Amino acid sequence: MRELLHGVVWRVHLPGLLRLLVTFALLLAALGYNLNVRSQLADAEAQNRMQRDMVAQAVSAQALLDENLQDYHRLEAAGLIGDARRLEWIEAFRGAALELELRDARFTLSETRLLEEHENALWRYGLDFDVTPMRLDLQLAHEGDFYRLMERLAADAPGVFSVDTCKLDWLQEDALNNSLTRLHGLCELNWYTVADVTRDWSGEQ
Questions:
Q1: Looking at the predicted structure, is the pLDDT value of residue 9 above 70?
Q2: Which range marks the domain in which residue 6 is found?
């Protein structure tokens, strides 16, 4: 074998060997380039799919927004969405009491707080309800005065409220006055509003 190798004239075959080595090197370079291009193409396709998904989500969100925007603004204007409308509730109560000639109608409006989980039937997961308790101390001629007062509040005041408790007691004879007041009422109301989550969206953009 050694004698066979010694018998080979390498100088004659050297150009061919060099061409073979160059060809092999070019083949390796082409293979590496091909693999790199395929990797970049796969990344580009993945990015393209991601962008298409994002566009589809944006279109879906825009369609949902367009479909419900009018209702959202209507609820916002009605006082169901946004901050507690404390001043407007006070003005509505005073106006209703004046209209119904309830001369001795007092109220206490407590601090607004977040509705606790499962506190009542209004609680919903993902919605932040604010609740503002209101205590009424009323002098009434009859039960109808109370119902008319609640109707006026529901019609004139923004937001929504519930009457949690209400106790009506007949006044003693010596407590009656010239205004024909016959009943004393102690009632607990709760005003509800939903937090406006869209206020946080501008900070996320």
A1: no
A2: 1-77
Number of domains making up the chain: 2
Do 110 and 181 sit in the same domain of this protein? yes
Q: Each residue of 154-170: pLDDT tens digit?
A: 999 998 899 999 998 88
Residues 45 and 128 in one domain: no
Confidence of residue 79 (pLDDT cuts 50, 70, 90): confident
Residues in the chain: 205
In whole angstroms, give the CA distance from residue 132 to residue 85. Answer: 10
What is the amino acid identity at position 84? A
Show the DSSP H helices in the chain as ranges: 2-6, 10-77, 86-99, 143-156, 201-204
Residue 183 has pLDDT above 80, yes or no: yes
User: Are 71 and 98 part of one and the same domain?
Assistant: no
Q: Which residues pair with 166 in a beta bridge?
A: 187
Q: Is 101 left (phi over 0), alpha (psi -120 to 50) or beta?
A: left
